Amino acid sequence: FGIATDESFVITTTNRKEITEDNFSELVQDGVTLYLLQSVDQMLLLATKERIDFLPHYDTLVKSGMYEYYASEGQNPLPFALAELIDNSLSATSRNTGIRSIQIQLLFDDSQGKPAVAVIDNGRGMTSKQLNNWAVYRLSKFTRQGDFESDHSGYVRPLPVPRSLNSDISYFGVGGKQAVFFVGQSARMISKPADSQDVHELVLSKEDF
């Protein structure tokens, strides 16, 4: 890499975890993306890209007809989809010490691209690994086990209070990805972990699939 012998450097994961002799076998796996930096908290001068490859979970097939089921029973499935997206923000802001801010924006300005639904919150944010895990259609966040790093890691399910911001409103378990593709053609997740200076962005589109 052309590093001078008197120059110090570190090798980290995209979550800024430094690779050491003790954690090498745990963090360095096939296909993992690593950073070669002067320090762990060094600011990145350019955006980096990481392609995510995964096999769809069997629930993709087993549960993919949920919205059709609700619609066929005379219920509008759109509230279920919006509830799933808002529930992600409720989870992310559940441990905020200050104000919990959750905004839902309907964007119809053609100059900004196609119409979109934007859900914005001031939650704890997600790492690149957590965004990767979010991309994989899996079980409910309350039934997952053995995840290396869950997309809701550290989340504690609150006591059920009807119609409360502390409730889990996505109890149908239809999944964020299914909700996104019910509403639109693509998903863009932009997140900055509370303890990191890095901003992570994930794009999923029907065209790519």
Automatic annotation (TrEMBL):
Entry protein name: SMHD1 protein
A Gene Ontology biological process term: double-strand break repair
Gene responsible for this protein: Smchd1
High-level lineage: Eukaryota, Metazoa, Chordata, Craniata, Vertebrata
InterPro entries reported in the protein's UniProt record: HATPase_C_sf, SMCHD1
Superkingdom assignment: Eukaryota
Residues annotated as signal peptide: none
